[in-house]
Amino acid sequence: MRRSLCRSLEASTSALKLPAPSAVRISRSTPKRWHSTAEPAPRPITLLRQLLASRPPLSPSSSSSAADAGADEAPLHRIVAYARVVRSHRNVTFISLADGSLPGNETLQGVYRSSSSSSSLPDHQQLAPGVGLELTGRLKPSRGRGQAYELDIEHLKVTAPVDAATYPIPLTSSSTPASNDLLRKYAHLRPREARHAAVLRARSAFEKAISDWFWDAGFSRVAAPILTSSDCEGGGEVFRVEQDQGEEAGPTTPFFSSATPAFLTVSSQLHLEALAMGLGRVWTCGPSFRAEGSATNRHLCEFWMIEAEQLTSSSGPAALHEVMQTTQGVVQAAMHFALHHEQTRKDLEMLWQGHEATLQELESVASSSSGPWPTMTYTDAVSLLESEGRQLDEPPPAWGQSLSSSHERWLAQHVASGPLFITDYPSGLKPFYMRANENQGPEERRTVACFDLVVPRLGELVGGSLREERLDRLEAQPAALDWYAKDLRRYGCIPHGGFGLGLERLVGWLTNTDNLRDVASFPRTKGPLRY
Fold it and tell me: What residues does the Aminoacyl-transfer RNA synthetases class-II family profile domain cover (predicted)?
């Protein structure tokens, strides 16, 4: 049967007349070219810092004639900057250029001659301090004193005129420096002022160094919520968030259906504890909000916090030491990077001008060879303050009272001559989540496993603690915190601890800026909200 079927298939196939394959010709004609009608891409913008970093080294025998000969061979650069100083003469104009990338008070002198390829010099009325410019030119050795290089400008265009008569912030180095009160009044213009720009660049450097340190130490950066139902610190100084229903809206319905209202976060700590149970070591950097009416130079109602949480190997003094080690590592990383990064170092040298000895002290503190920072208990600190009462700016505290900023500064300066960890505060001074110390005496003298890091000239910089991992110690907390006080504790809560570092306080301490309103670009304090 199978053989007969195969014969029939062969017969039917042979009966088919299939056409012979035709030859395929491959065309080798030139492919069609498409021409773009768009204008060529403009030359990329070069930052002044990049431009000066690319300069060749000068030899002692460099002469003006050699500079002129080499100027035409130097590459052409496109610069976007503003003028700090303008000096106009008959055939040449000197412009001190700044674009925010150069450290301290540094500028690059631009030289614009009437013989440049452009038809004529711009209107001198337009060239004033603060004006925005787009220009192209070549970097060459300078003929004058005060700078090694200058920019030989070939084309210049005024892109942002300025009303020089009413410009409120002095830009020239010869002008009287603007007061801090004036600069705060014009916070939207303040970043153009050299000192504030240096503070902002230093802040950026600190954040980079801290991020790098955490990465190397095995911490995962996480995002914590800004809207929360928790008052982490328990002080009631929270901003409540409600939906704007409009003037003609009917009965309001809460946006969130939970029994508790929504707040702007005071701290990310509770959420970080939950994240640490899965990731081991976590950190975040984000804004925090506290509705406190303090008008001191150390307080803002919106500020940024570096917060970290880590699992610890035990729940005793050794565990607290582990968290303190992490704290010291983070702070030293920020200091060391800034002091050894060429650009940031120049910013710090300008900010500490006249206080070079203090800058040298910071350098020794930043050194990893300095060893662990000194530590003393709260009880010992109170005893020392009581014995040195006559040297203090205010009366010493009794046991159980808070240490004031002046107390903290005095202790940091006279006990450690630098950063100082103060540990084991009374439980009544600290939030509910801090772990109670073991083997304590009477209830009124009980302490918790915590620390404050205090530094000279500032006071408290960091606050941290071990977290209470024992369920029976947290059962009295409100129902709104069941997820934290009960669930996290009964479903495997490994001993852990963490800390919060005020970023503005760190920047203020390391940049010689006493008032935190001069660290934040747009400071938020109680009173009018302009921006």
Answer: 200-523
Q: Which of 377, 474, 469 is nearest to 425 (CA)?
A: 377
> Mean pLDDT lowest for which of 23-27, 185-189, 346-350, 433-437?
23-27
Residue 280 lies in a domain: yes
Buried b (16+ CB within 10 A) or exposed e, 407-433: bbbbbbeebbebbbbbbbbbbeebbbb
Torsion sign across C-alpha atoms 296, 301, 304, 306: positive
pTM of the model: 0.86
User: Does residue 391 share a domain with residue 290?
Assistant: yes
> DSSP letters along 317-338, please?
HHHHHHHHHHHHHHHHHHHHHH
DSSP conformation letters of 259-291: SSPEEE-S-SHHHHHHHHHHHSEEEEEEEEE--
Report the C-alpha gap between 421 and 464 in whole angstroms.
10
Q: DSSP H helical segments within 341-429, as ranges?
A: 342-351, 356-366, 378-387, 405-411
Phi and psi of 251, rounded to 5°?
-55, 135
Highest mean predicted confidence (pLDDT) among 7-21, 44-58, 332-346, 464-478: 332-346
Residue 139, domain CATH: 2.40.50.140
DSSP letter for 145, please: S
Quickly count: other Cβ atoms within 10 Å of residue 50's Cβ: 11
What is the structure's pLDDT at 61? 52
Among 67-76, 199-208, 297-306, the minimum mean pLDDT is found in 67-76
Average pLDDT over residues 36-59: 77
Average pLDDT of the segment spanning 444-453: 93
Residue bearing the bigger pLDDT, 239 or 442: 239
**Cα dist. 345→145, 188, 342, 359, 363 in Å?**
24, 26, 5, 10, 11
CATH classification of the domain holding 285: 3.30.930.10
Q: Are 131 and 229 members of one domain?
A: no
Cα–Cα distances in angstroms (integers) from residue 192 to residues 130, 188, 350, 415, in the given order: 9, 9, 16, 40
H-assigned helices in 56-157: 64-71
> From CA 360, how far away is CA 345, in angstroms rounded?
12
Q: Supply the range of the domain harboring residue 96.
A: 75-116+123-167
Bridge partner list, 289: 302
| Strands, sheet with 375-377, edge to edge from the N-terminal-most edge strand | 220-221, 281-289, 302-311, 496-502, 459-466, 450-455, 420-423, 375-377
Residues 207 and 110 in one domain: no
| Tens of pLDDT, residues 378-401 | 999 999 999 998 788 899 999 999
C-alpha closest to that of 277 among 451, 476, 431, 483: 483
Distance CA 409, CA 403 (A): 10
